[in-house]
Design brief:
The protein is mainly α. It has one domain: ABC transporter involved in vitamin B12 uptake, BtuC (Orthogonal Bundle). The chain has helices at 3-27, 30-55, 63-78, 81-87, 95-99, 104-126, 131-151, 153-156, 171-189, 192-202, 204-209, 214-240, 250-263, 268-284, 305-320, 333-346; strands at 162-163, 242-243, 292-294, 297-299. The strands form 2 sheets. Strands 1-2 form a two-stranded antiparallel ribbon. Strands 3-4 form a two-stranded antiparallel ribbon. A hairpin with a 2-residue loop joins strand 3 (292-294) and strand 4 (297-299). Helix 3 packs antiparallel against helix 6 (104-126), helix 3 runs parallel beside helix 7 and helix 3 (63-78) crosses helix 12. The protein is globular.
Length: 349
């Protein structure tokens, strides 16, 4: 397809999304809008992890750590000094923390950049490890970030975290960042760097033999993924208006990993579709945690049961459809138009 036509269709799709957001703000209730916001944030996080794991083959379990960094940095910058003075009751905040202030966009970017910086610092020693060891090491990094958040009360307010974070992360911000993440990921994967990432994933030894600086390319992928994980964490913190160390456990990384695996490792389209489906199901399946009544007999609800359901679903996906929803296939306007004209021809349109 001609590049101009492709660009026009992309602009039209973005316009439709904008109109949908405008309609949703006026017609949907707060709960539905919250789910839409979570869909956008989860797509950002899934795309960032898919870049690291699906396209470059780096088995990383440290996403919760990068999200925590982004969330704390953004929160510190958008909380008013008066709010910080009331929040820091265990110990007073550092002077630079107390006075730090920035607009929401700058705060989100700062959260992403600081997360990317930690991605570089952590990646330099850890990316020399093999797959299984890398997974364990990055999981350890995420736990270190969480423990530090508990034990640095003058920076993070310790175990109390932050409450009353300004809720700037509305549909426009979240889907705007989602589109930006999608655009950057598509352009990156379609570039020479993307081909290098996939070559490293498929056969690292062969990539080295071709003269590719494998370590440098791994570090590039890891740091970009960390940046968007930090952005996702920043948006999530503003969206829920409260953060604390208990929020950034391995379960958070597992949720993102589940979206990536379900959609298909190495599929951008899969991450988007699975981000939508899994987010909706995570909310819908809350009923399995509620009590069930059979006449006078009550089966008490079991907290966390929905994660058991999803864990079993993930096991079945790995066993029977390892490639996920999409495998490595991608949506394209060429494919969509071919399907449309094929169906139209069948119906004599």
């Amino acid at each position: 397809m001609d590049a101009k036509i492709n660009a026009i269709l992309n602009i039209l799709a973005a316009a439709v999304l904008g109109l949908s957001i405008w309609w949703a703000e006026d017609h949907l209730d707060g709960y539905m809008i919250q789910i839409l916001n979570l869909i956008a944030v989860n797509i950002i996080l899934a795309l960032s992890l898919n870049l690291i794991y699906g396209f470059t083959g780096l088995f990383s379990l440290g996403h919760a750590g990068f999200m925590a960094i982004g969330a704390y940095v953004c929160s510190i910058l958008i909380l008013a000094p008066e709010q910080k003075e009331m929040l820091f009751i265990l110990e007073p905040a550092y002077d630079w923390v107390q006075s730090a202030q920035a607009p929401f966009f700058v705060a989100v970017v700062a959260g992403g950049l600081i997360a990317a910086l930690f991605g570089v610092l952590v990646g330099i020693p850890l990316l020399r490890l093999g797959d299984d060891y890398l997974g364990m090491a990055t999981l350890g990094f995420a736990e270190i970030v969480r423990i530090l958040a508990i034990n640095l009360p003058r920076l993070t307010n310790g175990a109390l975290g932050f409450k009353g974070i300004p809720d700037h992360a509305n549909l426009w911000w979240n889907f705007g960042w989602c589109l930006f993440t999608l655009f950057v990921t598509i352009r990156l994967i379609g570039s020479n760097s993307g081909n290098v990432f996939k070559a490293i994933r498929d056969d690292e030894t062969a990539a080295k033999a071709m003269g590719i600086d494998v370590f440098r390319q791994k570090l590039l992928s890891f740091s970009i993924g960390a940046f968007f994980a930090g952005v996702g964490g920043a948006l999530l913190g503003s969206l829920v208006a409260t953060i604390d160390p208990k929020m950034f456990t391995f379960v958070l990384t597992f949720n993102v990993l589940m979206i990536v695996v379900t959609g298909g490792l190495g599929s951008i389209t899969g991450s988007v579709l699975a981000g939508i489906v899994i987010t909706i199901l995570l909310e819908w399946l809350r009923f399995v945690e509620n009590p069930v009544y059979f006449g006078d007999w009550e089966l008490p609800g079991i907290p966390g049961m929905r994660m058991v359901v999803f864990s079993l679903a993930l096991i079945f996906i790995i066993l029977f459809r390892r490639e996920g929803f999409m495998g490595k296939r991608e949506f394209s306007w060429d494919w969509a138009l071919r399907r449309f004209f094929k169906k139209a021809g069948r119906h004599g349109i």
